[in-house]
Model the fold of this input.
Amino acid sequence: ETGVTQTPRHLVMGMTNKKSLKCEQHLGHNAMYWYKQSAKKPLELMFVYSLEERVENNSVPSRFSPECPNSSHLFLHLHTLQPEDSALYLCASSQDRAQGAVGYTFGSGTRLTVV
Amino acid sequence: AQSVTQLDSHVSVSEGTPVLLRCNYSSSYSPSLFWYVQHPNKGLQLLLKYTSAATLVKGINGFEAEFKKSETSFHLTKPSAHMSDAAEYFCVVRAYGGSQGNLIFGKGTKLSVKP
Done:
């Protein structure tokens, strides 16, 4: 394990469902990120949190709603998703946002399938 | 703006032969560059990083990469491939400016290793 834990590992949901993805890190990092990984596309940065404050939202549809209640936990709340939202959702953390040069620590991801 | 281009979407080598995964970067600043590896159904693991120190960077599992400013390249190499090296590899550059600290990923190169 990398120190960043994501649950669940797999999720199948209908388009009318509401579900949440969870990410947890106990590395003492202050910045956390959500990425979307779709087939044949580069990783897409969705959201950036620094010290529990959202600092970046890369034009993500409102059916994705992030939440960062403390520096160790990050959630991605999902509702009324579309089939094209099926992807691997990766959570990452870093010491702080400005320290991106030292790299991120990634979780293993949640494989989401929208049916 | 910063970007990376991975020149091959798929590379196939035989076990015991050298590996070369090519990456070119574009950056207005002195870049921070990374290689990450992703094994099937896993998250991303940092292989190595360049942050303006030595131009030849050694990483884990026998991989190394050389930063060549004149060629704007950061190719990943390994002298002898193992079956366990079969995975997808991502070249990554750190963003500056408004997206300070964010990581920008290439599209990935899938490495296959034949027995």
Notes: Chain B has a mean pLDDT of 91.
